[in-house]
Structure formats: structure tokens, C-alpha cells
Write a structure and sequence with these properties.
This protein has 178 residues and is of the alpha/beta class. It has seven helices and ten strands. It has a single domain, classed as Spore Coat Polysaccharide Biosynthesis Protein SpsA, Chain A (Alpha-Beta Complex), CATH 3.90.550. β6 and β7 form a beta hairpin. α3 runs antiparallel to α7.
Length: 178
């Protein structure tokens, strides 16, 4: 199974390098990495260019914000599985994507989500808070057409069928009202 990972970034020079390294350091070989930059001006582009040969799709242009960039990345994704990794986040272990793919392959599920560890920005080895999700019932995860979970990895078919891209568009329009 091919896995597409999408990272959206704007002015995140201090963290994007660790984010990229956590993706390209995975032990799973069929990863398509997509980075969408909204027009960074703080040196983020210099960091991204250091790894450009390991990034499959890189776009930098002014956009309408995070969700616009996310929609661009998801639309470009060609993987069977699509994951979203925020520019200031990291995949915890080199075997994480392999584990996610095994889960999809053995359970025929449409989505996988996992634990989150919030770390100290100055010492990423120091966990300051953990989040352990309960078992998710898909029917209970939608409210007013919005997915209510973080760091979910879904199949492309699940995203298309469930309308996640449309939800993100609705959320973008809602956020622009404020």
C-alpha cells in the first residue's frame, strides 16, 4: 500500500526540519511525502530545500490558510492511505507507518488513529502531556458534518466517501467569518 503524508506549513522554520526527518526516516518504503507551504518568509523554505530530494511534491505559494493548503495536498495525494502531519509535529518512531499499514491491511478498516504525546518544545524527549483515545465509533465521530478526531490516517476511499475534503472546505469558510 502506498502512503501519502501531507504537511502544511507557514513560517515554521524551527520545527519543519524535525517533521520532515520523522517522515523520511520511516522504515516503510512506499511513502509519498507532500509539503504545501503557504508562502513562508522566516527561513522555512531554506530548511525544506535541504530535503527537497526526499519530498515528492513541494508547492510554495500564498494561499487562503491552513485548510486551503490541506485541500491542495489531499487533492495531490496518490496513496491508498493518506495521513496528515502538522509542520510542528513528528512521527514518534521509525516503524510507525509500517504499523499503520499493517493495521489497514489486516483489519480492512477505513481509518486509524493513535495516541498523542505532547512534548516540551525545547526538549522533545520530555513528554508533558499524553492523550489516549477511546475506541471510536465512526457514527459518533461526526457532528454537523465535521470529523472530531485528531491525527487520523484514512484510506483515500474513506476520505472521498466521507467527504473529508468537503468538511475541510466548510471549516475554512467558517473560519474566514471570524
Amino acid at each position: 500500500m502506498k502512503v501519502s503524508i501531507v504537511s502544511v506549513v507557514l513560517n515554521c522554520r524551527d520545527y519543519i526540519g524535525d517533521c520532515i526527518l520523522s517522515v523520511i526516516g520511516q522504515d516503510y518504503s512506499e511513502i509519498e511525502y507532500i509539503v504545501i507551504d503557504g508562502g513562508s518568509t522566516d527561513g522555512t523554505l531554506d530548511v525544506i530545500q535541504q530535503y527537497q530530494d526526499r519530498i515528492h511534491v513541494f508547492i510554495t505559494q500564498k494561499d487562503q490558510g491552513f485548510y486551503d493548503g490541506l485541500n491542495k495536498g489531499i487533492a495531490l495525494a496518490t496513496g491508498d492511505i493518506i495521513g496528515i502531519l502538522n509542520a510542528d509535529d513528528m512521527i514518534a518512531e521509525p516503524g510507525t507507518i509500517s504499523m499503520v499499514v499493517r493495521c489497514f491491511a489486516t483489519t480492512l478498516c477505513g481509518g486509524v488513529y493513535g495516541n498523542l504525546e505532547y512534548t516540551d518544545r525545547k526538549n522533545i524527549r520530555r513528554v508533558v502531556r499524553s492523550w489516549r483515545p477511546e475506541i471510536l465509533d465512526w457514527k459518533d465521530s461526526k457532528e454537523d458534518g465535521c470529523l472530531r478526531i485528531l491525527h487520523c490516517t484514512c484510506t483515500k476511499n474513506c476520505m472521498d466517501d466521507a467527504g473529508i475534503i468537503r468538511w475541510i472546505l466548510v471549516l475554512q469558510r467558517t473560519m474566514n467569518l471570524f
